[in-house]
């Protein structure tokens, strides 16, 4: 597969790294910054150029990996040379309808990835209109599976839904890890030891949840004994409304995703 990335930032680099391991693809990157081009060439042995190619072929894939605020200009520059190529956009917020206007093409797949893609543990939600064929969907799936797991969404609004869960979800997890590390330091551990203990605790808990057939609520209850230490901590979380705050925050995240989509998808 011939794949051209427009933009060579962190997420593009993660995907390029994952794809490069297979040896099945020809990859080039359009990146304005010379130092970043040099880094991409050295790290991944890909072709990195400063200017948009003069023409794409219909059997190519173009991955839009630029900031949402710059996507309109990139699409308008890409439109005359696109040549019917499949477009895969990982830019947050921008709706397919807007990209279709700018590109003059409906052959578009939207993707919401997340940052654990940088270590091959990403979660990506994908959406394409009904007129995007199975081969194009398969190509987009293969690209994103190079950095983790994928799920196809039935409606474009599903991009907003998955943003509130896996797209922004790593930040929720990091926030909880950060809080636990601070608690461990207050308990008397050195910060490096606190970090090591908390990360190992998360690793173990996630693996147990993955392997166990029990609901996570049951796993949590299994750690608690009546009148014990864990119960005291959970009671404080409940009294402070931690669970409801997390749920409300996720819903605020989704609402902002919808707002950004409307704002950034205007002409």
Characterization of the model:
The protein is α/β, with parallel strands linked by helices and 267 residues long. The protein folds into two domains: 161 residues, Rossmann fold (3-Layer(aba) Sandwich), CATH 3.40.50; 89 residues, ProC C-terminal domain-like fold, CATH 1.10.3730. Helix content is 54%, strand content 14%. Strands 3-2-1-4-5-6-7-8 form an eight-stranded mixed sheet, sandwiched between helices. The two termini are 32 Å apart. The mean pLDDT is 94.
Instruction: Please name the CATH architecture of the largest domain.
Output: 3-Layer(aba) Sandwich
- Number of structural units classed as domains: 2
How many strands, what sense, and barrel or not for the largest sheet?
8 strands, mixed
CATH superfamily of the largest domain: NAD(P)-binding Rossmann-like Domain
Strand order within the widest sheet? 3-2-1-4-5-6-7-8
Helical amount: 40-55%
Coarse structural class: alpha/beta
| The top level CATH class name of the largest domain | Alpha Beta
Question: What is the H-and-E element order?
Answer: EHEHEEHEHEEHEHHHHHH
Mean pLDDT: 94
Count of DSSP-assigned helices: 11
Give the overall shape, derived from the CA principal axes.
elongated
DSSP strand content = 5-15%
Task: Spell out the key features of this protein.
267 residues; alpha/beta; ProC C-terminal domain-like fold; 14% strand; elongated; Rossmann fold; eight-stranded mixed beta sheet
List the helices and strands and how they pair.
Layout lengths: L1 E5 L3 H11 L5 E5 L3 H11 L2 E3 L11 E4 L6 H8 L7 E4 L6 H8 L4 E5 L9 E7 L5 H12 L2 E5 L4 H11 L1 H18 L4 H21 L4 H8 L5 H12 L1 H23 L3
Parallel strand pairs: 1-2, 1-4, 2-3, 4-5, 5-6, 7-8
Antiparallel strand pairs: 6-7
């Amino acid at each position: 597969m011939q794949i051209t990335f427009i933009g060579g930032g962190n997420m593009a680099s993660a995907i390029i790294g994952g794809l490069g391991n297979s040896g099945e693809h020809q990859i080039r990157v359009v990146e304005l910054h010379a130092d970043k081009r040099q880094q991409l060439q050295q790290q991944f042995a890909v072709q990195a150029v400063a200017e948009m190619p003069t023409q794409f072929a219909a059997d190519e894939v173009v991955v839009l990996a630029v900031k949402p605020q710059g996507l309109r200009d990139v699409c308008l520059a890409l439109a005359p040379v696109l040549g019917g190529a499949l477009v895969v956009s990982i830019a947050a917020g921008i709706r397919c309808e807007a990209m279709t206007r700018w590109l003059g093409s409906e052959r578009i797949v939207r993707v919401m990835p997340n940052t654990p893609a940088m270590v091959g543990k990403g979660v990506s939600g994908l959406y394409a209109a009904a007129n995007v064929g199975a081969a194009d969907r398969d190509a987009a799936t293969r690209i994103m599976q190079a950095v983790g797991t994928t799920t196809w969404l039935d409606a474009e609004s599903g991009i907003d839904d998955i943003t509130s869960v896996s797209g922004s979800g790593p930040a929720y997890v990091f926030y909880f890890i950060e809080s636990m590390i601070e608690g461990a330091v207050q308990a008397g551990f050195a910060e490096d030891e606190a970090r090591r203990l908390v990360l190992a605790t998360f690793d173990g808990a996630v693996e147990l949840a993955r392997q166990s057939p029990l609901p996570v609520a049951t796993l949590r209850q299994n750690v608690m004994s009546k009148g014990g230490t864990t119960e005291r901590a959970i009671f404080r979380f409940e009294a402070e409304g931690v669970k409801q705050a997390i749920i409300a925050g996720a819903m605020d995240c989704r609402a902002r995703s919808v707002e950004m989509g409307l704002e950034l998808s205007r002409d």
